[in-house]
Amino acid sequence: MPDSVAIVTGAARGIGAATARRLAADGHAVAVIDLDEKSCADTVSAIESAGGKALAIGADVSDPDQVQSAVDRVSAELGAPLVLVNNAGVLRDNMLFKMSEDDWDTVMNVHLRGAFLMSRAVQKHMVEAKFGRIVNLSSTSALGNRGQANYSTAKAGLQGLTKTLSIELGKYGVTANAIAPGFIATDMTKATAERVGVSFEEFSKAAVGSIPVARAGEPDDIANTVSFFVDERSSFVSGQVIYVAGGPKV
Ligand code: NAP
């Protein structure tokens, strides 16, 4: 792989933080992007104390100007980004009859518009280098989930975006793949437990009951899968969606 620079969005915590640490351990310089630059400090210091290189950047992935400035900064300070992990995400769960336009638009903007804007800004560098890796975070909710009309639509949309990116960019050495996690223990699933009024322990226990490997997923389970897709040796794997959910059923 050429000297590689990776961007991970939503990397202040959870799956994004684990992915940033993993890609740094794999030898990439990593741009840690999240809404607030200061919130990226823990991820950056974990990477640096393990001997890696990282840069914190505050940007809202749904804003085209902020996305362009972030990518320009990565290119100027770390080098051309050749790996992009579109991980930033939010939940605005509600049953359809209670879902507001704002709940719908916020989720579409962060997940779908964000992944589109980031991919569009970064592809130029990948095409020039004739090498690139794009990994999008979908979800098992893409197959439908009660209370998540907005989120499941966005996560299904990301699978379509992934396949189209793989078709358009394949001849430039760029692969695009998606990971659809099942239940992963992060602040996002903690917030869901809180919203439905149960403790995280109870919520987690109920989820684990239907997971064949009989445990909750951890952010590192997803980071490992990202690492596989990003590996130079994975150049013939493109346009795929892998469900990382501890079993075949989701
Ligand atoms: P998380 O702990 O909530 O972290 C998401 C991060 O994204 C937060 O740091 C958040 O920043 C950031 N973010 C939100 N909006 C942003 C924006 N507009 N621009 C830049 N950054 C933004 O979530 P997670 O559980 O690690 O999930 C990561 C990804 O995996 C998401 O796409 C999620 O949908 C997907 N996923 C998660 C699970 C799961 O079980 N956890 C399952 C399937 C899929 P703030 O803290 O400032 O809001």
TrEMBL record:
Residues 4-182 form the Ketoreductase domain. The keyword Hydrolase does not apply. PROSITE patterns: ADH_SHORT. One of its GO terms (molecular function) is oxidoreductase activity, acting on the CH-OH group of donors, NAD or NADP as acceptor. InterPro entries: KR_dom, NAD(P)-bd_dom_sf, Sc_DH/Rdtase_CS, SDR_fam. It comes from the Bacteria. SMART domains: PKS_KR. GO terms for biological process: fatty acid elongation. Keywords: NADP, Oxidoreductase. Belongs to the short-chain dehydrogenases/reductases (SDR) family. This is 3-oxoacyl-ACP reductase FabG.
